[in-house]
Amino acid sequence: MIKKTFEKVNEELYCEKLDNGLEVYLYKTDKTKNFYITISVKFGANVTKYKLNNKIYDVVPGSAHFLEHKVMALSENPEISKRINELGSLANAWTSYYGTNYNIFGSINLIENLKLLLDIFYNININEKCVEEEKGIIGEEIDMYKDRIDSLMSNHLYKNLFFDSYIKNTVVGERSDIEKITAKDLNRIYNDYYVPNNTFIVVCGNFDPDEVMEVINEYISNLNLKPKTLPKRVKEKEKEIVKIPYEEIQKDIEEPRVKYSIKMDKRIFGIKEDSILKDYLNFILNSNFSSSSKLFEKYKLKGIVYGLNYSSSIIDDYLVINISAVCKDPDLFIKNIRKDIKKINITKKEFERNKKRYIRNYILDFDNIEDIEYGITMELLLDNKIDFNVYTYCMNTKYEEALRILSLIRFDNECIIKTIK
Questions:
Q1: Domain annotation covers residue 239
Q2: What are phi and psi of 310, to 5 degrees?
Q3: What is the DSSP-derived secondary structure letter of residue 93?
Q4: What's the rounded Cα separation, in Å, for the pair 131 and 185?
Q5: Which helix (H) or strand (E) holds 190?
Q6: Are 208 and 305 found together in one domain?
């Protein structure tokens, strides 16, 4: 194992890559008696089509999430489910656009929990009967998300922003999508993507790294897993313009909501790493649209909004900046934000304050093993690497670069979602 140290916080991470390509990351800490064990696959809802061995396969929207349900099928594994409950552990899973994560959180017998999670991940039985039975459960989950106003508006927003990108589909898919999914489809995806050189394990807690590594090595060697040629995701070509600039969603809620977004080609900024561009943008957006910003105070005093928030997303070659508001007067908010977003700026003092906030949050994350695991997992899913020098990176960010990025933001390609009663 290689031991690497996170700069300034002096926290250590043990890293090992098995001969078959499976990566293992072990974070040992005495700050907690609990542990968090996860297995992640670099396959998520952004794969709508892939190429393998000169053949192209279409992927039905919602397939990654559906496969998560069938791998983490505890109701079909009563013995494993019973043992997890006896240990007082919690088993769960989640799917994003960029990957799928299976996890167990517990406090008793880490080794047995680790073996149980490996059993869940590597011993699957996906057949037509269980797939058909699962469709009703996932259909209810889809309906649940549609009842949540924030989820509903975000889904509509991305469908309106994009023509052909994966982001126009929700992670869970639509009911019409999941009806098309078959056991054959899921087994093929599992065999193509759930391979050792596309998988990584993260263990966080108070344990002996050598013992945990020995258990993983023994378990994986008994399976005789070999690395495979990985599929290549086929990206759909996307237009720069917005598909639908304006939409009203009828929803019976007391306080109207608005999402105001702008879409642009990220390549205009000339930054290769998406994470760097997003960090600079978040410094800028936090100074202008957070709950402590002058604009929020101005809008609040004028009775325009009750709440204001922001986000930025990078979807393949495109950047989306989104301003979300809970409004007293949605039309007045839209009128004002259209003007004020073009006036956004950041002072050097604000920039330095954002850098300090970034470092503070980074340090605080090491107080929680779930935050640590999530940070490691998302870096690997998004960037395929872990940054151990975050402090130096953050300190090297330049105010002049923030101003350059700010000067290149385009405001003409807008998309608005508004709720009405």
A1: no
A2: -145, 160
A3: E
A4: 11
A5: helix 183-193
A6: no
What are the start-end ranges of the H helices in 49-148?
Answer: 63-71, 78-86, 110-122, 128-147
Tokens 């999670």 belong to residue: 117
Alpha carbon separation from 339 to 92, 342, 350, 412 (Å, rounded): 45, 6, 22, 11
Q: What digits encode the pLDDT tens for the residues 91-146? A: 999 999 999 999 999 999 999 999 999 999 999 999 999 999 999 999 999 999 98
310 - beta bridge partners? 323
Task: Give domain status of residue 200, yes or no.
Answer: yes
Is residue 288 located within the same domain as residue 414?
Answer: yes
Q: Is 210 exposed, middle or buried (0-12, 13-18, 19+ CB in 10 A)?
A: exposed
pTM to 2 decimal places: 0.95
**364: its two tokens:** 């605080």
d(CA 192, CA 209): 30
Pairing of strands 232-233, 305-315: unpaired
For residue 359, the model assigns a pLDDT of: 94
Can you tell me the distance from the alpha carbon of 285 to that of 333, in angstroms, rounded to the nearest whole number? 17
Domain encompassing residue 270: 246-420
Number of other CB atoms surrounding residue 130 within 10 Å: 16
